[in-house]
């Protein structure tokens, strides 16, 4: 794997993955909803700061600030930060269900949305991994 794309909230899971990825020379792309972009804002400011939270993925990614450790890992390992809108997140979650029968939370679908919208554009030969989980979801909204 060359790059791992994962959703970022307060940064706990992100920090652990960034540490391991760095050890193996794997690039990390942090994906966030436009309405909950704590890491993106912190990287732009060079410091942890509070952000407004208003996203469909707020149940899992709705942190008003990213941890200092997450910002440190992002800066030390040259993490790429991208944002996507809620519509793209909903589409990515629906795609995972319809094409692969995977039930994931909206927050988790944010990583796939980053690829689907080309917020992150991998090179042709780049091998990508996307972290998915379904802990914070209600699958009933996937049934028509």
Please describe what this structure looks like.
There is one protein chain. The chain has a four-stranded parallel β-sheet with strand order 3-2-1-4, sandwiched between helices. Helix 1 (12-23) runs parallel beside helix 4 (68-76) and helix 5 packs across helix 6. It is an alpha/beta fold. It has helices spanning 12-23, 38-45, 58-61, 68-76, 86-100, 106-116, and strands spanning 3-7, 27-33, 80-84, 128-130. The chain is globular. It has six helices and four strands; from the N terminus they run E-H-E-H-H-H-E-H-H-E. Strand 1, helix 1 and strand 2 form a beta-alpha-beta unit. 41% of the residues lie in helices and 14% in strands.
What features would you highlight for this structure?
single chain, 144 residues, alpha/beta, 4-stranded parallel sheet
Give a concise summary.
Helix content is 41%, strand content 14%.
Cα end-to-end separation:
36 Å
How much is the radius of gyration in Å?
Answer: 14 Å
Strands across the major sheet, in which order?
3-2-1-4
The helix fraction, in percent, is 40-55%
What is the mean predicted local confidence, pLDDT? 94
Question: What's the total number of strands?
Answer: 4
Order of helices and strands: EHEHHHEHHE
- Silhouette: globular
Structural class by SSE content? alpha/beta
Q: How much strand?
A: 5-15%
For the sheet with most strands, the description reads: 4 strands, parallel
Number of helices: 6
Which blocks of ≥5 consecutive residues have pLDDT under 50? none
């Amino acid at each position: 794997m060359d790059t791992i794309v994962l959703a970022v909230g307060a940064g706990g899971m992100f920090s652990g993955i960034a540490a391991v990825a760095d050890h193996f020379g794997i690039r990390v792309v942090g994906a966030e909803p436009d309405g909950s972009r704590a890491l993106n804002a912190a990287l732009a400011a060079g410091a942890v700061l509070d952000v407004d939270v208003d996203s469909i993925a707020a149940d899992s990614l709705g942190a008003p600030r990213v941890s200092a450790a997450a910002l440190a890992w992002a800066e030390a390992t040259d993490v790429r930060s991208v944002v996507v809108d809620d519509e793209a997140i909903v589409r990515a979650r629906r795609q995972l269900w319809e094409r692969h029968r995977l039930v994931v939370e909206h927050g988790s679908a944010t990583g796939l949305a980053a690829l689907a919208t080309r917020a992150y554009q991998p090179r042709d030969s780049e091998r990508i991994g996307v972290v998915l989980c379904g802990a914070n979801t209600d699958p009933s909204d996937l049934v028509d």
